[in-house]
Amino acid sequence: MSDSDFLDAHNARHVWHPMAHPREMEQSPPRIIARGEGVHVEDHRGHRVIDAVGGLWNVNLGYSSEPVKRAIAEQLETLPYASAFRGTTNAPLIELSETLTHWLEPEGMRRFAFTAGGSDSVEVSLRLARQYWKVVGQKDRTKFLAFRKGYHGTHFGAASVNGNDRFRRPYEPLLPGCFHVPFPWTYRNPFGESDPQRLATLCLNLLDEEIRFQGADTIAAFVFEPVLGAGGVFVPPEGFLRDVVALCRRHGILTIADEVITGFGRTGEWFGSRLMGVRPDLMCFAKAITSAYFPFGAVGIGERVEQAFMQADGSGGIYSGYTYSGHPVGCAAALAALAETRRLDLAPRAARVGAVLKAGLESLAASCPSIGEVRGTGLMLAMECVADRDTKAPVDAAFMTRLLDGTYEAGALIRTSGNVAILSPPLIIDEADAMRIVGALEAGFAKARAA
C-alpha cells in the first residue's frame, strides 16, 4: 500500500475533527493537506490550490517564511522550553513583551500575559476582568456582555460569551452571568432596518437598556471582536464601537477586544481596535502573532487594569497561566513573524489587495443570484449564499458542499459556515492571486447551481 493509499484508508478513522460530526468525516473524509508553499497548499494527491482561508485566519505570512522557520529552529537548538512561572523566565519572552508594547502603544497596552492560543487568551482576559473588580473592591461585578454572532473560542468561559448557539448548546450549562445583545447587521436583523446608522442606534439603545436591567455595578466587562469573524464576518457601522466603548466607560465597565483574528493587519489596519478608533482595557491575540508557525497567544493589559493590580496587596497575584505560557520557541517565532509582518508592511497590503478581492466578489455577485451579500474589510471577507434574493432564504448544506468542492477543483480552498462562504487568505497574496480566487469561486458557484 502506498503512503497515499494508507492515508486515504485511515483518514478520519481515528480522529475526532474539531467543528465536525465524526460520522460525517468518515463518510466524506476531509482533504489531506500535505505541503504548503507561498500562498498555496497541496494535497496528498498533488492537487495544488490557493489557500483562500489562510489556514484558519492565521497563516498571514504564507507557508514559506524562512525567517520564522529559522528562528524556531535556532531557539529549539538553544533552549526548547523554559517555564515562565514564578522564579524563571527566558530572553525571547522579555524581548517579545517589550516589542509588543511598541506595537500597541496607541492602544495603551502596558503589560502582556502569554498563552498557547486564542481561546486561552480570551479565557485569561475574562479571569483578569473578574479579578480586577475584586482587587478594586467591587466584588459584585462578575457578569459579561457580548454580541450575538460573536465568536470567542471554545473554553468554558470563552464559549459562554460566544453569541452562536452552535458552540453553546452541546455544552450547557455554561458560565452563568453571560448576556448577549444584537449586532447591527443590516442584511438580517430583528428590526427589519436597512439603514446602518439607525440600526446602530437601535442596538446601542438595547445595550444601554441591558446594562441598566442587569445593573452596571454587576457587570465586569463587555467582550467584542472589532470585526466579527467566525460568526460570519460582520463589520460594524461607522462610529458604532466608539459609542459602545464610551457607553461602557460611562458605566465603569471594562472592555475586552478579541483581536485573535483582527490583530496584526488582517482588516487593512494593524489592529481592529485601531481601525474602529477604540482603546480597550484588555486585548486578546493569537493566530497571526506567529503566523501559525507555533501555537501561541497573548493578552494585552491596559493602564487602568495594570495600575489596579500593581497597587493591590496579595489579591493582585496572577494565578492564571499555562505550562506553555511564554514558551521560548513561541516567543522566538512571534518576534520573527512580527518583524516580517512589519517589514512587508502587510496591513496596507491587506487593505489594497482586499479591496481588489472584494470588488471581484461584488462583480461575481452581480451575475450570480445565489450571492445575497458580500461583506468584510481588508482580507477578511464573506459571501452570504441564498436560494432566493427576495426572501433571503439560505441555501441548503448540499449547495455549500458543491460550492466548496467546485471551488477547490478550480484552484482555491475556501471555508464555509452554514450558508456563508468565508475568505481570509494569507496577507502576502497579490492582486493576481485575488482574481484567481474569484475565478475559482465562479466555477464553484456554477457547479453548485448546476445540481
Unreliable runs: none
Straight-line distance between termini: 35 Å
Our estimate of the beta-strand percent is 15-25%
The spatial strand order of the largest sheet comes to 4-10-9-8-7-5-6
What is the residue-mean pLDDT, rounded to a whole number? 97
Shape: globular
Oligomer: single chain
> Any idea what the radius of gyration is?
22 Å
Strand segment tally: 16
Give the biggest sheet: 7 strands, mixed
Structural category is alpha/beta
Helix segment tally: 15
Helix residue percentage:
40-55%
Quick structural overview:
The chain is an alpha/beta fold and 451 residues long.
Explain what you see.
Strand 8 (254-258), helix 10 (272-276) and strand 9 form a beta-alpha-beta unit. A seven-stranded mixed beta sheet has the order 4-10-9-8-7-5-6, sandwiched between helices. The mean pLDDT is 97. Helix 5 (91-103) packs parallel to helix 12, helix 8 (196-214) runs parallel beside helix 9 and helix 14 packs across helix 15 (431-450). The protein starts with a helix and ends with a helix. It has 15 helices and 16 strands. It has helices at residues 3-10, 22-27, 54-57, 66-78, 91-103, 118-135, 156-161, 196-214, 240-250, 272-276, 303-310, 328-343, 346-367, 397-409, 431-450; strands at 33-37, 40-43, 48-51, 109-115, 143-147, 178-181, 219-224, 254-258, 282-285, 297-302, 371-377, 380-388, 393-394, 412-413, 415-417, 420-423. It is of the alpha/beta class and 451 residues long. Helix content is 40%, strand content 17%.
